[in-house]
Known about the structure:
Mean pLDDT: 89
Number of helices: 6
Strand content: 15-25%
CATH architecture: 2-Layer Sandwich
Structural class: alpha+beta
CATH class: Alpha Beta
Amino acid sequence: MRRVRRAITTTLFLGLLGLGGLLLYGYARSHPEDMPWTPLDLSQPVGAFTGRKLADLADEGTLCRSLLDQAGVAFTPLPERTAGNSQCGYRDAVRFAADDDALRIDYRPNDLGTNCAVAAGLALWEWHVVQPAAIRHFGQEVATVDHLGSYSCRRIYGRSEGAWSEHSTANAVDIAGFRLADGTRISVLRDWTGSDEEADFLRDVRDGACDLFSTVLSPDYNQAHRDHFHFDQAQRGSFGWRGCR
């Protein structure tokens, strides 16, 4: 009798296992972007592991540039930059080209150069987060993003000691505001507080960035970020901490 029960239990277990496998296979075919083993494709929807895959591009400049190119994003590779210490400089930075057909947002000042992984995140952020949110809240697109820069050879918060900032390798960008197609300006410093469309828009684009960047910091994090969003692609391992606040 015990053997019969064991056989039944084993059969049920194997059946459930097989059913689970079939369901996973079906889901994977319908939603490849949600699978950790699917190669990153910037033309595909954002999936559960897109943020991890983007962060992995931080040291994969050739692959990253190829993905941007395949997605139709025009860019200029920037020459390698070295500094007086091993903590600063970059190798795989790019700058978006002006009047790009794939990207409708201009970054001002227009000298923004970032690690390619950050640029890839910004492209997806525009397509899947910023422009849909702008249409939803204002009925028009964002034309310009105001930024506070990317590369800066410094430690976190400019301290004399402690960890080095992701800005020291151009692996971060600070976003200060947005300008709509009709010229309306939305400022993180001015519009973050409140209950109007501008505040809702800023929260939507902050929250959406959390799926695309390793670290997303906003005025909710601390006073140092009262006037901007910080995005970076810090590499912390497959199960490393991801910050979103």
